[in-house]
Design goal:
Chain lengths: 328, 138, 125
């Protein structure tokens, strides 16, 4: 269950202060006279709520695409109750901050359940049609129906504008969250040994990602107090001048911290490109194989990989992998 | 999206103390708006460079700090204005290869690389105005 | 000039200067003078400048540090810059300031270790 403040934050995001509400009302020509007329229709609204809401939901449940949003009877009962409150709210005769706040719930709730604006707008058209029918049956007089319906249209379109804006704001927020998730996934820094880090890069590197890589590398180096970081670019499809330049900058920044960078995964193709493009990577340690990079890095922290003595053939349990140990 | 100014702070830039005050103010705003540490360092450093230029080369002036928003992101814009001698060869200064004025070249070209938008207007004998904008990242 | 605002400690033959306050012009000049006078008076094989307390290093401060290192070098003292913060490193590189020629280390311990490797070689030991 989402809390009340969940949709109230859109008041701030959409800057729905008194001035903004007045400006919207002016544009939708939603006058005080309209609000008074709506308030005077309140008895009518109370009389027809049940009928309008019931008809509305039978339309929504008849359509396969909109039926999907109502899984069970409990949900249907709940939304019908909300809908009755919403309907009566149109005839409250007010359009203040509290009203607007209440209306923001609609867009936020729809975005959350993944109801696309087309269904919302389509359903609203049917809703208006039902209201018009009810008005005609109740008021009889054509002129009064016209005036009443015009006021209803104004407040409804005012509501729709709020709902759509909330949709957009909620979407934008989701985009921000995805960006953050991608950023975290795109620079997976691994601690391979005490004070040695490894960053295997996979996928294309554009300038935005390159910045993220540099920042992530610097943060990790300081956090781990790593003497050395190995950046493996075997998974980077294109290494052109720009990518090389970014890598050089990262290396230079790592050096300022007091650590070193080893670039591994340099394929024959990448070596050829770099030389042909005239990229000077002489300030970097570069290697083809990651395993060589790890050996070099271990050397920097005063360690080395040695091969253990071959195991005695009689005892298979004595098989030992290469061990990491001190050089001296 | 439509850009909006949420708040404006106007500070004078005459002494070295003013340089420190402006850059402290910019840092406070960036921290309050929850910029990440890299963005905070970038806009604070650019401010330091440009404020120092105003004091050292522009014979003093002002810094106008604007807290802005484009509806989605918060931003900081700082406008540095002086009525100093102006810059005769902007292209040369921006290439970073200006040596007659101490650190000026690196200050301007370096600041440009730290911000999202950079605008430099200068007229010899009239003055210089540098406008920088940094947006909060997603 | 305001001398003595930046403490300079001696660890054996090495000097350790910790910059923990904003380097204003007067402070920067005093710092430079303090370092050089100390070297002149008592000698030093190495100089560690710890900037882990600085959240901003602009081109002015970077130049002061690089200059101090070069001046110390002329007097036979090797300088190592230690403890630079990630955001400071990124900012300097983006500005195009890679501080080539300045030795660096992650922390004071690493700095001392680095001096231990370099200094004997330079002094022909």
């Amino acid at each position: 269950m989402k809390s009340f403040s969940d949709y109230r934050k859109y008041m701030t995001i959409l800057k729905l202060d008194e001035a903004e509400i007045q400006s919207r009302r002016a544009f939708f020509t939603l006058t005080d006279e309209d609000l008074q007329r709506l308030a005077s229709l309140r008895p009518f609204a109370e009389k027809v709520t049940e009928e309008v809401v019931e008809q509305f939901y039978s339309l929504l449940l008849a359509h396969p695409e909109t039926r999907k949003f109502f899984e069970d009877d409990a949900t249907i009962r709940r939304v019908k109750r909300t809908q009755r409150e919403y309907f009566l709210g149109l005839f409250a005769g007010k359009c203040d901050r509290e009203y607007v706040e209440d209306r923001l719930r609609v867009g936020a709730a729809h975005e959350r359940i993944g109801l696309a604006p087309k269904w919302y707008l389509g359903a609203y058209r049917q809703y208006l049609h039902l209201i018009l029918n009810a008005l005609q049956a109740e008021l009889k007089d054509e002129e009064r129906v016209r005036a009443a319906f015009q006021s209803i249209q104004r407040i409804v379109f005012f509501d729709v504008s709020l709902a759509i804006d909330t949709y957009i704001a909620a979407n934008a927020e989701a985009l921000v969250r995805h960006q953050q998730a991608i950023r975290e996934l795109s620079t997976p820094v691994i601690r391979v040994y005490d004070r040695i880090l490894l960053l295997p890069l996979v996928g294309a590197i554009d300038s935005i990602r390159a910045e993220q890589i540099m920042e992530s590398v610097l943060l990790h180096v300081v956090e781990a107090q790593a003497k050395c970081i190995i950046i493996d670019i075997a998974g980077v499809p294109v290494v052109d001048t720009r990518v090389a330049d970014h890598l050089l900058k990262t290396t230079a920044a790592v050096r300022l911290l007091g650590a070193q960078t080893i670039l591994t995964g340099i394929t024959a193709q990448v070596a050829r490109t770099m030389v042909q493009l005239g990229v000077d990577v002489s300030t970097m340690h570069t290697l083809s194989r990651l395993s060589d990079g790890i050996e070099l890095a271990l050397g920097m922290v005063g360690k080395a990989i040695t091969t253990a003595a071959p195991p005695a053939p009689a005892s298979p349990s004595a098989v030992t992998p290469p061990v990491v140990g001190g050089t001296s | 999206m439509i850009e909006e100014i949420l708040a404006t702070h106007e500070l004078k830039l005459v002494t070295e103390d003013d340089v420190m005050a402006v850059r402290r103010r910019v840092r406070e705003i960036a921290e309050m708006r929850k910029f990440d540490t890299f963005a905070i360092a970038a806009i604070t450093t650019a401010t330091s460079e440009l404020a120092r230029n105003v004091v050292v080369h522009g014979r003093g002036g002002t810094a106008k700090i604007e807290e802005i928003s484009d509806g989605l992101r918060a931003g900081i814009r700082v406008v540095f204005t002086d009525e100093g001698p102006g810059i005769p060869d902007i292209a040369r200064v921006m290439s970073g290869g200006y040596s007659t004025a101490r650190s000026m070249g690196l200050g301007l070209s370096g600041s440009k690389r730290l911000v999202d938008d950079f605008d430099l207007e200068s007229q010899v004998g009239v003055g210089t105005r540098v406008t920088v904008t940094k947006w909060k990242r997603f | 000039m305001i001398r003595g605002q930046i403490p300079i400690l001696r660890i054996g033959t090495t000097l350790l200067a910790t910059i923990h306050i904003e380097l204003r012009d007067a402070v920067a000049e005093a710092f430079q003078a303090d370092v050089l006078t100390t070297i002149e008076k008592d000698g030093a094989a190495g100089l560690l400048i710890d900037i882990s307390g600085l959240d901003i290093v602009d081109s002015y401060v970077a130049r002061i540090i690089a200059e101090t290192g070069r001046m110390a070098k002329l007097m036979g003292t090797t300088t190592v810059l230690v403890g630079m913060r990630p955001e400071v490193a990124a900012t300097l590189i983006r500005m195009g300031y890679s501080m080539e020629g300045v030795l660096t280390a992650l922390n004071v311990d690493d700095g001392l270790e680095l001096l231990g490797h370099i200094v004997p070689k330079q002094r022909g030991a």
